[in-house]
Amino acid sequence: MTTASVGIDVGNELPQDTPHAISVSLPKWSDNVAYEEGERWIHECMKSGYPRFFINPIIRQLGLACLQKFGKPEEEAMIFPSEQISQRFKQFVGRYSDSLNGRFVSDIHTVHLLASSYTNESLDHGKSELTAHIFVAFFHPSLSKVAKAFWQHTGEGISSRMAEYFLQQLRTSKHKQSAIDPNSNMSFAHFHSHYARKPYNAEKTTLSITQETLQSDHLTYLEEHYGRNVIVQLADRAKTALRQRISGILKQLSSHESIVNQDLALQSRQWNGLCKDDVYLYPCGMSAIYNAHRILLNIIGEFKSLCYGFPYSDTLKILDKFGPGSYFYGFASSEELDQIERLLNSGEKILALFCEAPSNPLLTTPDLSRIHLLADKFDFCVVVDETIGTFANINVLPYADIIVSSLTKVFSGDSNVMGGSLVLNPRSRFYQRLKKAMKLEYEDTLWLTDAVHLERNSRDFVDRIHRINSNAEMLLKRVYYPKINPSRLFYDHIRLEGAGYGGLLSLTFETVGQAKSFFDALPLPKGPSLGTNFTLCSPYTLLAHYNELPWASNYGVEASLVRMSVGLEEGNQLTSNNTNRARNYTIGLNLASNPTHTNISSTDIIPIGPWSSRPPRRKMQSGDEEAEEAQEYSPSRKRRKTTGPMSSVQKRKHSGSEEDDTEEELSTTSGENEAAEVDENMELARRMVESHRDLKQSRGGKFASADMG
């Protein structure tokens, strides 16, 4: 079974023909539902997926090699890059295994595999040794659900490039083994996607392992697979460059004289202590968030955290599952800050407040000034995830003790490598304690060639984000976007002069049926992830909250939400060159003239381009029809209850009525004229976005092959 989007079949990598791609083509709404339901056909055609949710085929291949070489087929396994991570994995599985399966926790055992190789070339023009380690944890299959949760939430598993290196070593050289448990037996079983509700066990295949020497072939292998004469020894320089790049951007913005908010400019001139040693690299953004929370628990104590605003799904899971729980305030409203202040005044001790600036997917910006005042008064840490805003657009440093970010997204852009960062604020009152803890506990588990790719991809990061800002503003209507969000005041407070509002948009439709029709008609790449150099769309709520749709809907994250991450295409590729056509341009969705949607009016069409007039959005109608549609994609099993007390605001239904009240009543093109032009404009839209297949990056690579050489 195949469906296509811009010529990309379901299950193919995004970008195409990229072995380490971090997204996958899911071009139809039904593909996403099938993915969530774990239907066999879609898992059989999956070549890629988001790495924390879908195990890359290269990692699976390494698992099969371990099984063939060492194992017993009745066990399953996960591979981690350090012994400490494998130990935390066992602790997590022991904590969350039920009484029936808990007896198998003591049987978890770990095997340490070490691989060493020599290259013929190094930075010093001499031979140097590369030594790498993996720790394979083996466990009973009844523990696989809890084991998968650890892999997904923490992002601490090995990367596909690391697995590729070990596969090469297994094929070409002898490897050393030191068993942590000398009586352990070793095996590995396939680990399927996070998205699947129903388990799908792939058939195991045999991997031939030969005993060949590595010496002369290793550099050739690296050059063929990584391009530009990349050798492993460059990784240290790449990591240093990444840390300098991040700290340099933050230092530049912190001394910026022209920040939009002048009070912030005065504060920022005082932030001159930041250096590359305050920047810590991680294998992905969730790993940075997980470790920030873990280290705070170690140095401050076992206290609950505040989660302010509706966050990316795994952030809340980390706060709830790896510690005593959290207080969740999902609307990021001033009323909730009042509630938080009353909670703290009552004597409640808080570990930290975690928030996003702005949030994913509703693009709400928190009031960081007030949060900072509360943190000073009640002595808790503030952790800000600026992945969506990016430190090229916003300056959160004066308000945060810790800044975390996913470097996988727009910082990289090429959608072919994972990475994350954690930055300590040298002016924080927690700085000395955090610095001491990081010195003792920080592990650099970002794989060598991942760092090389991340450094190369991010060289033009600032230029790309400015282009993305411009492109995103061309696609505006009354959708979820920081510039038109009621919280814009808070965003502008931290926005840099000349900077924009990022490249993420979220659109919510009145019905799931309308969202499905819109999504299926989009002639754009569709799959998980964001921040890619090419425009990428996904039915975000289905992928992130499939098992808790009614709960997410309570916070405005509805099943009918479509998220769009805007890329680097030229403006005339995203909008019409002809102004008259642009005024009536739709994003390839012919709802008004489609006889199967005759109940949908022209006001349901999402317009694109420099509108001088636009149709008002019809107000959301809450009621039985909406509830039934949410249930259409709701799984039969009950969703997990959220740990920690719920704020009173959580009980109310977020209908978006306040946004509707503030929207201007603008004149519209007549429905009659719009219907007459919609077919022509749909074809125009398709032609405009066909350029995705020929998209050239600033470094000269093509979209279809970005970027393995």
Automatic annotation (TrEMBL):
EC class of the enzyme, as a word: transferase
MF GO annotations: cystathionine gamma-synthase activity; pyridoxal phosphate binding
Known cofactor(s): pyridoxal 5'-phosphate
Reaction catalysed by this enzyme: O-succinyl-L-homoserine + L-cysteine = L,L-cystathionine + succinate + H(+)
SUPFAM superfamilies linked: PLP-dependent transferases (SSF53383)
EC number from the UniProt entry: 2.5.1.48
Region ranges (Disordered): 593-709
Key words of the record: Amino-acid biosynthesis, Methionine biosynthesis, Pyridoxal phosphate, Transferase
Pathway info: Amino-acid biosynthesis; L-methionine biosynthesis via de novo pathway; L-cystathionine from O-succinyl-L-homoserine: step 1/1
Gene Ontology terms describing biological process: methionine biosynthetic process; transsulfuration
UniProt entry tagged with the keyword Protein biosynthesis: no
Biased composition (Basic and acidic residues): 683-697
Compositionally skewed regions (Polar residues) per UniProt: 593-604
Cited PANTHER family: CYSTATHIONINE GAMMA-SYNTHASE-RELATED, PTHR42699
Summary of the function given for this chain in its UniProt record: Catalyzes the formation of L-cystathionine from O-succinyl-L-homoserine (OSHS) and L-cysteine, via a gamma-replacement reaction. In the absence of thiol, catalyzes gamma-elimination to form 2-oxobutanoate, succinate and ammonia.
Protein name (Swiss-Prot/TrEMBL): cystathionine gamma-synthase
Organism per entry: Neolecta irregularis (strain DAH-3)
